[in-house]
Specification:
Blueprint lengths: L23 E12 L2 E8 L6 E2 L2 E2 L7 H13 L1 E5 L5 E9 L2 E18 L11 E4 L1 H7 L3 H11 L2 H7 L1
Parallel strand pairs: 1-7
Antiparallel strand pairs: 1-2, 1-4, 2-3, 2-8, 5-7, 6-7
Length: 164
């Protein structure tokens, strides 16, 4: 998907006092599959607040951003597949931390066509996994930026039907 500069919108990100670790980068997986002719995407609940999110996490030493996103998809949702190394969007959020200030993060999202679903995975006991349409997912997530990424991805459904 190609976006023009006029289509990009970014919510303000509040940074801390200017320290070098005030903004963190994470990588997320937009896990998708075709089910009964319809595009479905995977959402998982966050561990503490139980909000609906995409699997995401910190960079991994020696791994590309897309590979790190794929690893998070397995750990958080039990999903494996074909991950693409083209970022389909970036969103920002404030990571809530117990007993500490929120940490501003930006998340680069990589699409992954799911080819395998595990019945047991590392965080299965901490999260709920659901499959919904991208439009339903956009309604369920808290981030307006992430919702827009999901809606943009939904617009690609006809392309995906020919590759999936």
């Amino acid at each position: 998907m190609v976006m023009s500069m006029s289509e990009i919108t970014q919510s303000p990100v509040t940074l801390g006092s200017g320290g070098k670790r005030d903004l963190r980068t994470q990588f997320g997986a937009l896990c998708w599959r075709m089910h009964k002719g319809r595009l479905k995407v995977a959402l998982v609940t966050s561990r503490r607040s139980k909000r609906w999110i995409l699997p995401k996490g910190w960079p991994l030493d020696g791994a590309t951003p897309a590979a790190a996103a794929a690893r998070e998809a397995y750990e958080e949702a039990g999903l494996e597949g074909i991950v693409h190394d083209v970022c389909v969007g970036i969103y920002s959020y404030q990571k809530r931390r117990k007993g500490a200030d929120a940490l501003p993060c930006v998340v680069a999202i990589f699409p992954m066509e799911v080819t395998k679903r595990h019945s047991n995975w590392p965080e299965a006991h901490e999260r709920i996994l659901t499959w919904v349409t991208p439009c339903e997912a956009a309604d369920l997530v808290d981030s307006l930026e992430l919702a827009q990424i999901l809606l943009n991805f939904a617009a690609q459904e006809t392309v995906l039907q020919h590759t999936g």
